[in-house]
């Protein structure tokens, strides 16, 4: 007895459309997980397809190569967060002290606490073998991040909240411990718990407090 072809109903069509619209995000999530777990060189497009429960052809439909897929992962997880931080710096009405704390904690929520924190280990371990990614990462992440923090420091200096400091050196002093926290999370910290990985928010709070106030006692303090 012949079988009839299923006919799409008004209920199934929107579901299929929603699925199609969500697919790029699903592929990016799967790619992020595979890249962090296996590294760039060892990752295959089939790995991403299998994790996302789609065919390899579907991955290539959205991302023409593994290189473009990694670039999309970095843009989605890091470049976008930096751009949103720039908007926050431009619009924030409060003190620069409050803004610095907010930026640091927001960055940790969106990057540090997520799988995206593994991107930094991926870049450090593989960038020497793929120099084109060094240029891409510098343009998409390092330079925008540097400009974001320089704008924050300049805001504080202009408002009389911060003393005049060497901007580039201070940017590095701010960001390097945050990056190290992510690297530690995906290396030694994954094997043995310590204060930093057990309570990273406390670490970040103390780091920002140290940057703002230093080690020396202020006049009248002991």
UniProtKB/TrEMBL annotation:
Residues 21-81 form the HTH tetR-type domain. InterPro entries: Homeodomain-like_sf, HTH-type_TetR-like_transc_reg, HTH_TetR, Tet_transcr_reg_TetR-rel_C_sf, TetR_C. Keywords: DNA-binding, Transcription, Transcription regulation. One of its GO terms (molecular function) is transcription cis-regulatory region binding. The keyword Ribosomal protein does not apply. Residues 44-63 bind DNA. Residues 1-23 are annotated as: Disordered. It comes from the Bacteria. Pfam families: TetR_C_11, TetR_N. PANTHER family: HTH-TYPE TRANSCRIPTIONAL REGULATOR RUTR (PTHR30055), HTH-TYPE TRANSCRIPTIONAL REGULATOR UIDR (PTHR30055:SF223). This is TetR family transcriptional regulator.
């Amino acid at each position: 007895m012949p079988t009839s072809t299923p006919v799409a109903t008004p209920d199934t069509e929107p579901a299929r459309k929603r699925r199609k619209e969500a697919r790029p995000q699903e592929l990016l999530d799967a790619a992020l997980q595979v890249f962090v777990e296996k590294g760039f060189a060892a990752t295959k497009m089939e790995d991403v397809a299998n994790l996302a429960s789609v065919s390899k052809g579907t991955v290539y439909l959205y991302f023409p190569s593994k290189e473009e897929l990694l670039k999309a992962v970095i843009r989605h997880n890091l470049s976008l967060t930096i751009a949103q931080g720039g908007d926050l710096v431009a619009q924030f009405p409060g003190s620069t002290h409050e803004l610095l704390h907010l930026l640091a904690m927001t960055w940790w929520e969106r990057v540090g606490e997520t799988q995206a924190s593994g991107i930094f280990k991926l870049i450090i371990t593989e960038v020497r073998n793929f120099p084109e990614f060094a240029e891409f990462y510098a343009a998409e992440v390092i330079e925008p991040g540097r400009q974001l923090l320089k704008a924050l420091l300049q805001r504080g200096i202009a408002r009389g909240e911060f003393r005049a400091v060497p901007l580039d050196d201070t940017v590095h002093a701010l960001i390097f411990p945050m990056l190290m926290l992510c690297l530690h999370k995906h290396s030694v910290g994954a094997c043995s718990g310590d204060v930093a990985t057990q309570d990273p928010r406390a670490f970040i709070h103390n780091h920002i407090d140290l940057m703002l106030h230093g080690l020396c006692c202020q006049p009248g303090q002991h």
